[in-house]
Amino acid sequence: MMDNQFFKNVEKKTGVNMKDILELANSLQHANFKDEQTVRGVIKRVAQIANRKVPKELEDKIVQTIIQNGKQLDFNTIANMINKK
Q1: Domain contains 21
Q2: InterPro entries of this UniProt entry (predicted)?
Q3: pTM for the whole structure
């Protein structure tokens, strides 16, 4: 595992708690991304971690993109979608 100083530096630069990111990443490993409720839950968690509001319309669009297009779901994918508003 990476050393604590690395995580502290990332937290300092981003303001995002690495524990939250690692917990999210762990939860993504076995999630069913064809399930709308699961995808919505992940989107809400990423938005919370990133300290961003996601309007319902954008959430719907992200959910449809992931479910219909089979887009791989990870923190960066959702964060990029949220930031494109």
Answers
A1: no
A2: SpoVIF
A3: 0.68
What span, in angstroms and rounded, lies between the C-alpha atoms of 32 and 18?
23
Range of the domain at 77: 33-85
The answer to whether residues 67 and 74 touch, using CB atoms and an 8 Å cutoff, is no
Which contiguous run of DSSP H or E holds residue 85? Answer: none
Asked whether residue 2 is domain-assigned, the answer is: no
Read off the pLDDT of residues 21-31 as tens digits, 9 standing for 90 and up.
788 888 888 88
Report residue 22: phi and psi, to 5°.
-65, -40
18 part of a folded domain: no
Number of domains in the chain: 1
Assign residue 56 a region: left if phi > 0, alpha if psi is -120 to 50, beta otherwise? alpha
Euclidean distance between the first and the last CA atom of the chain, given in angstroms as a whole number: 34
CB atoms within 10 A of CB 52: 13
- Can you read off the two tokens belonging to residue 14? 């981003």
Find, among 2, 33, 34, the residue nearest to 21 by Cα: 2
